[in-house]
Amino acid sequence: MRENQELLGQAQEFLRAAKAAGADVAEVGLSAGTSISVQRRLGKIEETERAESRELGLRVFVGKCSASISASSIDPAAFARLAEQAVAMARVVPEDPYAEIPEAPPPMDAALLDLDDPLEPGMAVLIARAAAAEDAALAVPGITNSEGASASWSRSYVLRATSLGFAGMYPRSYHGVSATAIAGTGTGMQRDYDSSSAGHGADLEDPAVLGRRAAEQALARLNPVRPKTGKLPVLFHPRVAGSFLGHLAGAINGAAIARKTSFLKDALGQAVFAPGIRIIDDPLRVRGRRSRPFDREGQPGGRRAFIGDGVLTSWILDTRSANQLGLKTTGNAGGVSNFYMEPGAMSPRELMADIGEGLFVTELIGMGVNGITGDYSRGAAGFMIRDGQLAEPVAEFTIAGNLRDMFAALRPANDLEFKRGTDAPTLRIDGMMLAGS
């Protein structure tokens, strides 16, 4: 509580310095945190680290001209100098008719979101987590090496305050553990990984379970073949399926829409996905990986279906892009929060049951996605599907299509898990082009 009051006091002092320097309005963003991490490989600790960070930023407006400045330390003695620099920059840049620091209501009680695990686990606990994950992977017969296991923890305070009277701050914590196993020898080696992250240590997956799963996944990838070129139905594992939500978020971001640089620029109110598909942003999900009581402009958020029954219902907007488009902010300054696709009714096994020949993709490589046209082409690895069952591992091929067509053909399974902040269940997309042998 003492640290809370100290940070709030420093933010208010910085705002006063900005006003004294000649700013009409100003906002301060400030964060302070502590992190610990450990890296272990083949039973030996390779690296341990403890770090403390302090960051602050100031944005000022002189009329309709604005400028921002940042620093990697919080030094009240430097506030006046930094504020003067920011105001001097604002006075020489062109006006921006759309930018502003908006009014914001008092923030909700962040404790209701339960984002903070105040108990620091300590280095011994992190070492034990990494050891459990790696030892479980190495114990699986056929595993020949390890790229190691890691465990980490952090706790930080996020603060935003404006000269218009808004002040909000919340703490959040993070626990993470991961392991990467190697199977096979020589040029026939294959690797795979698994990980778990959560705001509370109690919500982490058992490190030994994820270590064994990483090992089993690496073994399953041994001796891959290159599939034949063709047009096939493709299933995407949840760990890569979320990437499609990332492409959607970029395509319906208000800044891209205002610039007319999105393949969905004319799609508002239209069916983009099949009926029944819902894609939600929920910043108020309790213990959510990206939950927040307010966005980077202090605006409150709420659960919103950007895709409802397959239809695009809204752009993702901050204040500036909303002003450009003649709309209101959706409380998404800084991007989406807990962004996810609701699950379907069928299990992954049921979703692939009628596929005579297809693909199950577990890894995507490269970033061959054109946000203007929607053209999609990425390297991939995974498994063939034959007669509704997973078959031989495959690698060194490319899958391609157009996101507009892919979104329309997409079908979700029922295995949604909230693990990454942007989450989707297993997805099936028919009619994708595969470029292989």
From TrEMBL:
Domain Metalloprotease TldD/E C-terminal: 229-436
Ranges of residues in domain Metalloprotease TldD/E central: 117-222
Pfam family, one: PmbA_TldD_2nd
SUPFAM superfamilies from the UniProt entry: Putative modulator of DNA gyrase, PmbA/TldD
Domain (Metalloprotease TldD/E N-terminal): residue spans on this chain: 26-90
Entry superkingdom: Bacteria
Family under the similarity heading: Belongs to the peptidase U62 family.
Protein name from the UniProt record: Modulator protein
Organism: Acidocella aquatica
